[in-house]
Design a protein that fits this description.
globular; about 190 residues; seven-stranded antiparallel beta sheet; 2 domains; alpha+beta; Alpha-D-Glucose-1,6-Bisphosphate, Chain A, domain 4; single chain
Length: about 190
C-alpha cells in the first residue's frame, strides 16, 4: 500500500494554510491532475465542518473520480479525509497545521515564523490492473499536493515580505466565512478597478 508523508515549513500562518486545504471548491484551480470537484454535502458536526465531495482526476486519456468525506477541525488544527467510494480499496489522508515561533535570525538575517504543515496519505487501489494503469498518476499527484498548496498560499496571501492588499469589504461587519479563493478574486477585482 503506497504511503506518503511530508512536513514542510511555510511562511504563512497555520490558519491560512488550514483555510487553503479546507477550501475544497478551489482544488481544480491549482491541484495537479484535479480536473473537477463536486461538493455533494456540507454540514457541521460539533466544532467540525464536514464536506462530502467527489474529485475528478485525469491525465491524458486516463480519468477517474472518487468520493471522500473531509472533516475540518479548526480547534485541533487538522483536516482528515476519509474514502467513501471510487477506484480505491482504501484511502486515508491527514493534514496537520502548527504555527512556528518567530526566529529573528532566519535565512538572510530575516525574521522567520510561519507554520509547519504535515501531509500524510495512504491508499490502495481495488484492482491490481487499475493500480498498474493509473497508480503512477495518483502517486505523482499525491506527492505534489504539498507543493501545490504552498504555491497557492503564495498566490492568495502573497510571498513573505510582499505587501498584500486587503480584500474589498473586509472588516468586522463581515463575520461569515469567505474562502481564500473568493478573497483572491476580490483582490483581483479591486486591483483591476483601481
Amino acid at each position: 500500500m503506497p504511503i506518503f508523508d511530508t512536513t514542510r515549513r511555510v511562511q504563512h500562518s497555520a490558519a491560512q494554510m488550514f483555510d487553503l486545504v479546507a477550501d475544497v471548491r478551489a482544488y481544480p484551480q491549482f491541484l495537479p491532475f484535479c480536473t473537477g470537484l463536486e461538493l455533494i454535502e456540507q454540514h457541521r458536526e460539533g466544532e467540525r465542518e464536514v464536506f462530502v465531495a467527489r474529485m475528478q482526476v485525469g491525465f491524458k486519456a486516463v480519468s477517474e473520480s472518487f468520493k471522500t468525506r473531509v472533516s475540518c477541525d479548526r480547534a485541533a488544527s487538522h483536516i482528515d479525509v476519509e474514502y467513501i467510494d471510487g477506484p480505491f480499496r482504501y484511502l486515508k489522508n491527514r493534514w496537520v497545521f502548527r504555527d512556528l515561533p518567530q526566529e529573528p535570525n532566519g535565512a538572510l538575517g530575516k525574521a522567520q515564523g510561519g507554520s509547519q504543515v504535515s501531509f500524510h496519505i495512504e491508499y490502495e487501489f481495488k484492482s491490481r490492473m487499475l493500480a498498474l494503469l493509473v497508480g503512477s498518476m495518483f502517486d505523482q499527484a499525491f506527492r505534489a499536493f504539498a507543493t501545490a498548496f504552498e504555491r497557492r498560499a503564495n498566490q492568495v496571501y502573497g510571498r513573505p515580505g510582499q505587501k498584500v492588499v486587503p480584500a474589498a469589504g473586509q472588516g468586522d461587519e463581515h463575520k461569515h466565512y469567505r474562502s481564500p479563493s473568493s478573497v483572491a478574486e476580490e483582490r483581483r477585482s479591486a486591483d483591476s478597478s483601481a
